[in-house]
Amino acid sequence: MEDNFTKLAYNVKAASKEMAVLTEELKNKALLNIAQGISANKEKIFEANKKDLEEAKTLVEQGEISQSTFNRLKLDENKMRDMVQGIQDIVKLDDPVGKILLKRELDEGLILTKKSCPIGVLGIIFEARPDVITQISALAIKSSNAVILKGGKESVNTNKMIMSVIQEALQKTEGFPENALVQVFTREDVAQMLKQDKYIDLIIPRGGNKLVKFIKENTKIPVLGHADGICHIFVDETADIEKAKNIIIDAKTQYPSACNSVETVLVHNNFGKKEELIQALVDAEIEIIFAPDDWHKEYGEKKLSFKYVNSLEEAIEHINEYSSGHTESIITENKNNAKIFMNKIDSAGVYHNVSTRFADGFRYGFGAEVGISTNKTHARGPVGLDGLTIYKYTIEGNGQIVKDYAEGIKQFHHKDLG
Amino acid sequence: MEDNFTKLAYNVKAASKEMAVLTEELKNKALLNIAQGISANKEKIFEANKKDLEEAKTLVEQGEISQSTFNRLKLDENKMRDMVQGIQDIVKLDDPVGKILLKRELDEGLILTKKSCPIGVLGIIFEARPDVITQISALAIKSSNAVILKGGKESVNTNKMIMSVIQEALQKTEGFPENALVQVFTREDVAQMLKQDKYIDLIIPRGGNKLVKFIKENTKIPVLGHADGICHIFVDETADIEKAKNIIIDAKTQYPSACNSVETVLVHNNFGKKEELIQALVDAEIEIIFAPDDWHKEYGEKKLSFKYVNSLEEAIEHINEYSSGHTESIITENKNNAKIFMNKIDSAGVYHNVSTRFADGFRYGFGAEVGISTNKTHARGPVGLDGLTIYKYTIEGNGQIVKDYAEGIKQFHHKDLG
Prior knowledge:
The structure is a homodimer. Chain A is of the alpha/beta class. Chain A folds into 2 domains: 2-224 and 384-391, Aldehyde Dehydrogenase, Chain A, domain 1; 231-358, Aldehyde Dehydrogenase, Chain A, domain 2, CATH 3.40.309. Helices cover 41% and strands 22% of the residues of chain A. Chain A contains 14 helices and 16 strands. At the A-B interface, helix 10, helix 13, strand 12, strand 15 and helix 14 of A face helix 10, helix 13, strand 12, strand 15 and helix 14 of B.
């Protein structure tokens, strides 16, 4: 088993070197072939999905999976259209590979270039939603990365069918490397995947807290994503009551299970309209928990933790201690306080007078979203296609050696070009 | 012990939030105070260094440490001048924090800004060379990061003395936070450090392969650096013999123990001047190993592995299999082959007709070097000050909520500003 997986990972790594040199044209052709294949085979995909749904129905009855997991599993005409549209949208995005990030003449005839390139091999582990396969495959192809995908066991029939449609489309795309997209299926495969730090360069988990935490704790491969989304809103002394009400209600009720929903509201003790604010939240059917057991709580429903604080500094300290580093917002009419908050809060997103729900790659205008990262290195916040690239340095010369520079025979002049 | 270290790490994390908001002026003042302090206290530092050297002499005699470790330990007037100059050079560099990387109007009055910020807390583990302390402390201060430093046990007296001079200089700098630079001393401290993924954001090891490998295998914190430096040179069919000779001799002999020295030379079977090339290497006192036991071998002395290959493709495959992803060079007059090599080789540096020894932050014109990374995420190749930063997103608004956009009442227009 272990040797089989290592061989598979080795082959995907080899394919990744071929992926790295594909032209934008060929990549877009592959994507359009996939979009067409999904459309043409939608009945087969619905059929496979029906099988998964039947099996899942029993699991729901037995309490093994939740109704919301069941709902996310279901593909319908709308979701299918979104899948196809999603691939077509990625075709339209700029190629993130081959961008010149720096061009510098180190000395005459000695040219340093820093150019974006794919990371290599991505390992994607996702749950329930089978539409993730087409989205993540399209993002991987556009960024010239190879990918090993592992979907949830609930959607195994749907995933297999979609993947066979994708493979057929790629085979039709002349020049597209074999083994660049591979699907695996078992728990044991996940365990093997997390060990392949020689061949897999980045793991992207798409799923609940538990999945992400498990992955982060069990691999040495860099993981892009976030486990918790414990977002805060601080209502300052000078907050506008209407803004405060609207923003908190939006951040809690517009999509309560989203990672960028607010979980804790801190209110300045000197804020004059405390009662009006609380009444508005109650009217919006939000349950307010004063003095919760755990300030790290992510409710995922219309509940929030609530606390009065005596100062901006106390709010900042509370947030830096309990936040998951995702997104926080201050409601204030005091611009200086907003500035201090935005500088001192150490989270991927720090907002002034807007809802935390804006933390999203599409809302930021990235055109696609790989995921939202709470990491402090590589990529932070909503991650677009660029997050799937790194860079390499090339030097073009005509025989230069370091000895000449070390001995002072030649000097670097470091002129940036273009 | 464990609780003590966690408390220390917590305090450094708290100090990192203060570091994040320091002005460039204050940071430069702190750096100049340190430079002045080192100059003013050089006799005390020499004295502490003498103590270390005496103890180390015994260790050399007992075969516990090598002569070269001993040499790196020794501070003299030249090294002291370089230390001070190094700090002054960092003062002159642009502040890497607070750079606007993107400014976008999402909708009227809704402004997204992506701004560079410090990573947070760095953990630096280094061996022997005590001059690393001032360099890494200066880089951390300039990039607004807090840092926990652990030096080699051989230089403990020198490290303590330098650190006390640094602390005195920082105390003199009004407004500089306490606990932002902390030194620890024991092996047990290192073990504790590697566990603090809650408080330490990035580990930077500065030392030999063994140290770096040990660290990478024993922490979940991201590690910036490289273990091996197995660099390759491929002499293509159409290589210019003079360039081939000069470049290989430079890459092997100019500083044989450097990580960017060449370890393996691959030569195209159709290259017409094989004997002349080999003779030149022998004349330069380079030992040539045909058919080594292990193509992963990093010699660190005037030895190299040598192999004939039948094609450019074979060379690329060999390199992608055995390279450590540091730096490789092709010697060829065929521009198309150079292009293929540079595209398909998956290393941080890929060169054409130049020595691998150019892989260096100062030679690249970065003004400072944090280290050389063979990672595929965050920072790759020689890493300058920018590698110690990440970014955060801020949004400034006046009450906007997501519901309005989800329901089509408002639309994003995504206009890039400035």
